[in-house]
């Protein structure tokens, strides 16, 4: 009996702490399928909240356009991030060059740097490069801001591959580039998978950057789209229908939840891969 | 292929890993680099492989300097201590990988992989992945991968140290047989003097990056160049007695705090040549120490520990603060605490200079 209490207590504490979050999700599910709710008690069942899937919502573009934009942003940013992280991390892990230590410290410092302070500077850079109000521009900004983390995580994975394997590849006839592509990359594949999942979810959830740097409605991502619903569109009289917002929110969060279910195995490896200096 | 290492020095920052090393390895020869861990032997191997560049000195293959040749152009087969198999490839793909990189025709690759696998008796493992193999199997696959390339030079970095004792004995004989059969010049790195002695044609003993002696196993055992080699080669290691030289009539004696040994005829002339030296070290191998009843021996010692080894008995003895080891045939009639007499075989004694460690002479 005493043992049972001892084992159960941590779970009880965790459950109590998670309760507010669980309630939020519960409301999201219940609200999306009922015309009105009183707290968590629904008032009947309806699918009418989901009409935005088929008919445009006020003067906004279709939610499917926003969904496509979100996918493109998250996917594009993930691909760029992976390409740069896996090469930069390999160099930091394996090659000796002038300034390597300094560069590694810089990466860590940048990781800790509050990127929000760069918002205005980035705006000028994007405008100068004619990338303001474009998906690729925002994807590049997001990549730049997340690169320190990506590089550091991938470096941890490269550090864990033994030198012997790479030397064996070089002796077996690989050039340095071939050794990287044919031996090293396959060996850090779990790391790449983990970082890809992590980055995609991060990109999908991104709100601030698309909101600020892609003001045109045709470029809206889902996060910006939903914000426009809660805050009201241009010249719209604000009438908030919580049922619809819940449905849109569920539409937004569902892909991430499904994604998580299938890929959490990889995500855990981001931490298991370890970060070695 | 003939491999010449000429005045090789390798530094990492301020650390000198190898200093002024010169070795001439004949075509088809099996050479062991032997030394304690951190003595620079793996550095030598990786420099020969082309992974490291020499700081000074030259590596020559058949007379041609290869200092600037990248590893992939050296046609070397190497087996690492960790085996370094590619875990994402099957055994077949592992063995075929070096051949694929050479853009060899598929049929030729297949022929070579199968032939090499037969040679090492791993045909039934070809579809497996390295993670599914035992240590001994992985070692065979690694060796197979190195041999399938038909290399001019085979480099082995402690390939036996991750095997259990029984497998190590088998692999030792196997590698030696293969090397002689294929006639590939081979450099073998090990810290185990038994491995080096049993397998190699010649052994280069290294300590702290400096070559101590390069000779046949037999010569290292009977004519060690200095104290380090004398202690490192032979198991259990040689006994050393440090004392000062004193004259007693026509006899020369080496005298320690609680003992003295009269030098036999064979050593006298050597000792006389260095009479100005205040101290000398006498070396005697455990197998050349004879035990006798206490009243008979030249020295008297207390039995400290008895270790029966089956074929022999290893006896630890002490004379005051001095510890000696004797290897004697069983049965051993004494017990711990008994006082026994000692003789040193006069035909197998060594004299060393305690300052430089260099061998002065042997009887």
UniProtKB/TrEMBL annotation, chain A:
Record-linked PROSITE patterns? ABC_TM1
Superkingdom assignment: Bacteria
The UniProt keyword set, sorted, is: Cell membrane, Membrane, Sugar transport, Transmembrane, Transmembrane helix, Transport
Per UniProt, subcellular location reads as: Cell membrane
Q: Can you cite a GO biological process for this protein?
A: maltodextrin transmembrane transport
Query: Gene3D superfamilies from the entry?
Result: MetI-like
What's its membrane topology?
Multi-pass membrane protein
Cite the InterPro entries for this sequence: BP-dep_ABC_trans_perm, MetI-like, MetI-like_sf
Q: Which residues cross the membrane?
A: 63-90, 102-126, 132-153, 191-213, 239-262
Coarse class of the primary localization is: membrane
Domain ABC transmembrane type-1, by residue range, is 67-263
Q: Cellular component per GO?
A: plasma membrane
What would be an example GO MF term here?
Answer: ABC-type maltose transporter activity
PANTHER family xref list = MALTOSE TRANSPORT SYSTEM PERMEASE-RELATED, MALTOSE_MALTODEXTRIN TRANSPORT SYSTEM PERMEASE PROTEIN MALG
- Return the similarity comment: Belongs to the binding-protein-dependent transport system permease family. MalFG subfamily.
Q: Tell me the protein's name.
A: Trehalose transport system permease protein SugB
**Organism name:** Candidatus Thermoflexus japonica
| Source lineage | Bacteria, Bacillati, Chloroflexota, Thermoflexia, Thermoflexales
From TrEMBL, chain B:
Query: Please, one GO biological process term?
Result: carbohydrate transport
SUPFAM superfamilies hit by this protein: MOP-like (SSF50331), P-loop containing nucleoside triphosphate hydrolases (SSF52540)
Q: What is its EC number?
A: 3.6.3.-
Q: Which UniProt keywords apply?
A: ATP-binding, Cell membrane, Hydrolase, Membrane, Nucleotide-binding, Translocase, Transport
Q: Please provide, alphabetically and separated by semicolons, the GO molecular function terms listed in this UniProt record.
A: ABC-type transporter activity; ATP binding; ATP hydrolysis activity
Q: Which CDD domains match?
A: ABC_MalK_N
ABC transporter domain boundaries? 3-233
A GO CC annotation given for this chain: ATP-binding cassette (ABC) transporter complex, substrate-binding subunit-containing
InterPro entries (alphabetical): AAA+_ATPase, ABC_transporter-like_ATP-bd, ABC_transporter-like_CS, ABC_transpr_MalK-like, ABC_transpr_MalK/UgpC-like, Mo/tungstate-bd_C_term_dom, NA-bd_OB-fold, P-loop_NTPase
Please identify the protein, giving its name as recorded. Answer: Trehalose import ATP-binding protein SugC
Species annotation: Candidatus Thermoflexus japonica
Species classification: Bacteria, Bacillati, Chloroflexota, Thermoflexia, Thermoflexales
